[in-house]
Amino acid sequence: MMKTWKNLEKGRMRGTGMAVHGNTAESEPKVLHLAGESLEELSTLHDFFDNLAGEAGWTGRLANEFKLCCEELVTNTISYGYAESHAAKGIKIAVYGLPHVVTMEITDQATPFNPFETGEPDLTLDVENRPIGGLGVYFVKQMMDEIFYERTEPPGNRLILRKFLLQNLEENP
């Protein structure tokens, strides 16, 4: 089983177990199951995150970051991971919340692929000269604080994205 974990350093304070101030029990996840058949399912994904953001009291920015990251990874799974796969399709999105961290887990049975091992795009190139692809995963890496990939059995993928809510740490030390 292949695992990679990456804590993305962006010059900001990072949380670990301290970030939750002793609260280690994550909330019951909010779960969305997609068939993984068509990009038309993205509207269901958007509705899921809009409802979740309203229930959880997320800022617009936090909601948009999770929605964009999830949309990018689900689009890649549908467009590439299942494109030539004969496996049973399906994508599960689970979102967990703690007072100071939000975790999103995306699992599928698509062809095993770690999107976080792809190279960084060359942002110095003009748009006309830049190869197609790679910007979406780059944006995921920029927006999330921690990312994790695990190959699963039966063959598939598990992605975990984590965002620390630092403004809450400052308000509630």
From TrEMBL:
Q: Which domain of life is it from?
A: Bacteria
Q: Keyword annotations for this protein?
A: ATP-binding, Kinase, Nucleotide-binding, Serine/threonine-protein kinase, Transferase
What are the recorded GO MF terms, alphabetically?
ATP binding; protein serine/threonine kinase activity
Keyword ATP-binding included in the entry's annotation: yes
- Domain Histidine kinase/HSP90-like ATPase: start-end pairs: 39-163
SUPFAM superfamilies, per the entry: ATPase domain of HSP90 chaperone/DNA topoisomerase II/histidine kinase
Classification via InterPro entries: Anti-sigma-factor_SerPK, HATPase_C_sf, HATPase_dom
Q: Which Pfam families does this entry report, sorted A to Z? A: HATPase_c_2 (PF13581)
Question: Which protein, by its recorded name, is this?
Answer: ATP-binding protein
